[in-house]
Amino acid sequence: MLRAGRASLVISRNISTSSVRRQEVVGTVGTPVRRPVGGFRGGILGFLFGFAAASSLSIYYLQQENKVATGLLLASVEELQQGTEQITSHLDRLQTVEKELAALKAASAQKEDVSKVRNEMKKVYDGLHLELLDLRAHVWGVEQDLQRFVKTEPVRI
After folding, report:
1. What's the predicted TM-score (pTM) here?
2. N-to-C CA span, the chain
3. Which residue, of 4, 11, 18, 88, is most buried by count of CB atoms within 10 Å of its CB?
């Protein structure tokens, strides 16, 4: 009796529960009781679906971030390349200017050379000045001789 009382309690408890539980209890004695696995499968499928959705969204987000980072890196590399080209052109100009400067230094006169040439020019100028004075003195002497000659001799026609 005690057992029958407990079974009636279990049955009454089962009657007040959901329809699935009622169907389980109503089954025959010799047949195995089937329990639905849909709840467990649904949980796993839901988890897997959620995991797949989250994974795909995170991969998409990471790809977009990677695309943006790659674009920024490419822009930085292009700026660096332009800067490098500018520096290279400036260095080429500097090398050209240095070569021209070295050529000008080799071709230009030094201070000592200029002073030597100046001294030589002074000597030449002084010598020309003395020759000019000698020439004037000679011309003056010729004029004096000519005037004496004209005064002393009568004119013949």
Report:
1. 0.41
2. 196
3. 11
Q: Going by C-beta distance under 8 Å and a sequence separation of 6 or more, which residues neighbour residue 112?
A: none
Question: Residue 34 falls within a domain, yes or no?
Answer: no
Give the separation between CA 80 and CA 74, rounded to whole angstroms: 10
**132 C-beta neighbours (distance < 10 Å), count:** 10
Instruction: Tell me: do 55 and 80 sit in the same domain.
Output: yes
Answer for the pair 25, 14: CB distance below 8 angstroms, yes or no: yes
Taken in order 84, 90, 96, 99, the sign of the CA dihedral is: negative
* Contact yes or no for 57/68 (Cβ under 8 A): no
Count of alpha carbons within 13 angstroms of residue 124, beta-carbon side: 6
Q: Report pLDDT digits (tens) over 94-115.
A: 999 999 999 988 888 788 888 9
Q: Which residues of the chain fall short of a pLDDT of 50?
A: 1-3, 5-14
Are residue 96 and residue 113 in the same domain, yes or no? no
**CA nearest 21: which of 7, 5, 32, 35?**
35
CA distance 36 to 134: 144
Q: Are residues 92 and 57 in the same domain?
A: yes
